[in-house]
Amino acid sequence: MAMSSTPNILLWLFSIHFLLSLVKINEAKVPAIIVFGDSSVDAGNNNYIPTIARSNFEPYGRDFNGGHPTGRFSNGKIATDFISQAFGLKGAIPAYLDPSYSISDFATGVTFASAGTGYDNATSNVLSVIPLWKELEYYKDYQTKLRANLGDGKANDIIKDALYMISVGTNDFLENYYAVPGRSSQYTIKEYENFLVGIAGNFTKALYDLGARKISLGGLPPMGCMPLERTGNLMGGSECVNSYNNLAAEFNSKLNDLVIKQNKELNGMDMVFSDPYGIMLDIIQKPAFYDMIP
């Protein structure tokens, strides 16, 4: 397998995991994919804000259409692009702040995500990116434009039947809690987890109040195995940082409990917890099993 293909294949496997988690949602037609989160699902919004957290330069995008960087933190497509295509929608979900797209383009899919952001507003301040609350404000603006463009009836159908995907949280721990003085002096790590879960619950409830019914709440990957964390783990032989992985697994369990709770409390809510942890760790621990050419 060529090295340039590796990231796309891993994202494809990651996307398949998401799709397996969304089987019951997929029973009904999904007219649009609406995305919130961080660099894992940012398709270029950060290109249009004053931040250094951008990927608008090579080698990013080398395997994307035309071979040009798009603002995706990937050599090609990101997971939500693959998911959109799997649902029979567009092959790439555009960034809301990209002026080359219009509301008619966003009607079948849009991402409000911003690389470097988190649940915690303090996380977005680290690199001056879009906070999660602002992503929600952009979504409200999107709703207004969608209704003006399509009429209330059709727009409301899209809003109700769309799949809402949320992928965020890693930066709260690695770029904020463990890297910047502040939150670690205010909260123990377990208290901070609970603080973030509370924000997650408020966010999904806000989406529900705005008409969302099909939501995928993404968990954390084994973040101790991210390249930056392994590179910094010199005393550990540049292996995965197990404490960070254990934290991710613990936090994911709390997010899963939140999903179960809100599905019971919110009438008509159809939310799933999409957990990338297991499959990503399996890829890292058994790479030869995934050494294939699609």
From TrEMBL:
SUPFAM superfamilies: SGNH hydrolase. Transmembrane segments: none annotated. The keyword Membrane does not apply. Residues 1-28 form the signal peptide. It holds the Pfam family Lipase_GDSL. Keywords: Signal. CDD domains: SGNH_plant_lipase_like. It comes from the Eukaryota. Belongs to the 'GDSL' lipolytic enzyme family. PANTHER family: GDSL ESTERASE/LIPASE EXL3 (PTHR45642), GDSL-LIKE LIPASE_ACYLHYDROLASE (PTHR45642:SF32). This is GDSL esterase/lipase At2g04570 isoform X2. It comes from Gossypium hirsutum. The lineage of its organism: Eukaryota, Viridiplantae, Streptophyta, Embryophyta, Tracheophyta.
